[in-house]
Design brief:
This protein is an all-alpha fold. The chain has six helices and no strands. Helix 5 runs antiparallel to helix 6. The longest helix has 23 residues.
Length: 137
């Protein structure tokens, strides 16, 4: 039953990203060229939704799917690592025209060349796992 919930959420997520054109390489290209507000609008709605959702979770002391309390840790001081990570993420996003969510959507839509991007994402994750102990956390 839990698998069905996750599949349903993933399906809805894929439909929303597809219908909002957030998986479109052209929309992502426009965003990085500062030619269109479309993607920035989607990102701002996502940030606002996240802020409201976190406030609802904290104020109502909601529990997760297993009945355990949801604990959201306070932010750590120092943002250097977030800037570096964000720049690496943004560079990859700009180069391939897809962030992690749309990779799966594009593969599911039949764009087989995106499978190479998927392999690159897996390779990057593996490399991070190998060198993470040597990075500042």
């Amino acid at each position: 039953m839990n698998l069905l919930k996750y599949l349903l959420v993933g399906f809805v997520f894929g439909v929303v990203l597809t219908k909002s054109e957030a998986v479109s390489w052209y929309r992502i290209y426009e965003m990085f060229q500062f030619q269109s507000f479309h993607m920035y609008g989607i990102i701002m709605v996502a940030i606002a939704t996240g802020l409201i959702g976190i406030q609802i979770i904290k104020r109502n002391k909601l529990k997760d799917i297993k009945g355990l309390p949801i604990v959201i840790q306070d932010k750590e001081k120092g943002t250097f690592r977030y800037w570096i990570g964000g720049m690496i993420f943004g560079l990859g996003w700009a180069l391939v025209g897809a962030c992690p969510g749309p990779i799966f959507i594009l593969i599911g839509a039949g764009f087989s060349t995106v499978f190479l991007v998927f392999i690159g994402a897996l390779l990057g994750t593996f490399i991070y796992g190998v060198i993470k102990d040597y990075l500042p956390h």
